[in-house]
Amino acid sequence: MEVRISLQNLTDLSLFAGMSIEEIGEVLSKVNVIVKRFRKYDSIVLAGDSIENICILLNGTVQMIKEDIWGDKSIIANIDKGTVFAETFFGKSYDHSIVSFFASSESEILMLPFGKFLDNIGSSQANKKLICNFISIMADNNIKLIEKNEILSKKTLRAKILAYLEQEAKRTGATKVTVPFSRTDLANYLDADRSALTRELTRMQNEGLIAFERNTFEVLK
Fold it and tell me: For residue 184, what are the CA distances in angstroms to 61, 170, 190, 194, 199?
């Protein structure tokens, strides 16, 4: 379902950082911008889909998911409000997605045909700011994927759990973190079996390494 959007609501988004409402209006007036609302579990992009727009999550949460030929699902990333996604697969030489994106809660997503801006990089100061912000966002998103690879490179499930919790603690700046996953989704994110994850979390709590209640965790050692 398509919804209306106010330019004032876009000023806090990283894609429009440092841009005035007038500049945002200028760049968006050149393209057909769509804002869609998705229900929980709705697909936004499926693997194999052609990518014509970059997506910006205005409200809700989205998961980037990779599924193998046997149907086993792995959560690559959990996408929060304000995040740009699907940008990795956007471009003239590689314009289809190898992952899927699903709404993990009711979500509103702005879809922007970014190719027109790339074709006219120096057309205006506002356009230059938009391109610079886009490059910065791509760099940040690549760092997040590197951090995910760091987690998966750990040899044991315990090490994966600790690496993930430490990254979340650094990101939030808090000793206690509330993870955005159910146990099943956390297992998929860590590329682990759900039962094995539950057993390991219990052992780690009994050994005094972590404390947790439902989705709130604290690393003690």
Answer: 17, 24, 10, 6, 13
Secondary-structure percent of the chain, ordered helix, strand, coil, rounded to 5:
40, 25, 35
3-class DSSP state of 96:
strand
Would you place residue 87 in the very low, low, confident or very high pLDDT band (cuts 50, 70, 90)?
A: confident
| Torsion sign (Cα): 88, 90, 94, 98 | positive
First-to-final CA distance of the chain: 47
Q: Please answer whether residues 106 and 39 qualify as being in contact, where contact means their C-beta atoms are separated by less than 8 angstroms.
A: yes
171 is written with which tokens? 């990101």
- Can you tell me the distance from the alpha carbon of 213 to that of 221, in angstroms, rounded to the nearest whole number? 17
Tens digit of pLDDT for each residue in 56-84?
A: 999 999 999 998 877 788 999 999 999 99
What's the token pair of residue 55? 């997506």
